[in-house]
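Ascorbate-specific phosphotransferase enzyme IIB component: structure, please.
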Amino acid sequence: MLNILCVCGNGMGTSTILKISVKKICDQNNIDATVESCSFGEALSYITTTDIVLTSPEWAGMLPPSNAVIAETKNLIDTKAVTETLLNAVKEHFPNEIK
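Here you go.
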């Protein structure tokens, strides 16, 4: 099971919308994942237990080094772009998680 974290600036609207999209994408692609959303500040405490962080390029550049895969997409509410970004990250780094 993957731990996926959706991160935006305030952790309210955008990351929540992203979380809902990511859950649907995982369900549609048979990816077993726990998906959470939070603000950038909160992400610092979650990142050590996260497999994939899905965020925008501006926030990705400020995340501290970790073992998490940082998956960047310019538009966090563009379902097509988010799907492509997430699936590419899973296929490249966690290929056994796609059933």
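Notes: The CA atoms of residues 47 and 68 lie 7 Å apart.
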